[in-house]
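yo, HAD hydrolase-like protein is done. seq:
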Amino acid sequence: MSTPLGGYVKKKNYLVCIDSDGCTVDSMDIKHIRCFGPCMVDEWDLQPYREKLLNRWNEINLYSLTRGINRFKGLAVILKEVDEKISPVRDLDSLLSWVEESDELSNAAILRAAEEMDSQCLKKALHWSEAVNQKIRALPPEEIRPFPGAKEAIERLHMTCDIAVVSSANHEAVMEEWSRFGLLEHTDVVLAQNAGTKTNCIRALLEFGYDTDKVLMIGDALGDMEAADRNGVLYYPILAGYEKESWQGITEGLKHLMDSTYEGEYQRKLKTRFIENLS
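structure:
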C-alpha cells in the first residue's frame, strides 16, 4: 500500500479506479443528511430556512446529476442560491472564484487560500468543513458499511487489475472505512480529497504506463464519468438505488474489459442507463 503516488508501482496491465462514498461504501446519504447539510445551516445561521435548505442540499448532492459533487463546489452552489433568494452571503465571490480556479479542493487548500486572501467566506467554509468531518467521525460505525457485493467484486478485480481508490472524500475517513471493512488489502493506492481532482488523479496514474483501454473508473456520480471521459478511459456506473445489482454486474464488465469489447455498444448502454437513473 502506498499513499499517495510517491511509492506507487504498476504491477498489472489493467487498472481499476474506484470511488468510495455512495459507490463502494454506503455512507453518502447518512453523511449528507446528518452532517453536511445541518452544519451548513448552522455555520451560516440559516435556521429559519432549515427544512427548505436541507432538502435542496440533498437534491444537489444526492438526487440529481450533481450527485457526488465536491463538498466545496456543492457549498458554493447552495450559498449562491441563498445569496440570490434569501439574504446576501458576505464575501461569497471569494468562494465562487476559489472552487473554479483551485486545482485542489480540500481543507488544506482552502486554509491556504483563506489566509492569502484574508477571506471571511473561505474561513467560514473551512470551519464548516471541519465541523462536517467532526460529525462524520461521530457517526455510529455500525451504520456505515460497504454495499452488498462490493467487497467480493473488488477482491475479484484485484486478481487481474491494479486497484486505486479515487475519491473526493476526506482522506482520513476513506482510510478508516476501507481499513475497517478489510478493503485496503485489495487496494494498491488511495487517492482522496488531498490528492487533487479525480481527473488529475486518473491522469497521474496513466503516467505509470497503462493503456487507456485497460483502465476502468467505477463510480456513482456524473463527476466520476466526466473524470473518466477527460482521460479517455472506460467507465462503469454504480447506480443509486441499485448498488447491489450494479456490483453484481461487474463480472460482465470485467469480461468485456479483458476481451477489449468494453468500448462501444456495451459502454454506451451503461452510460445511458446511468444518466437516466439520475435524471
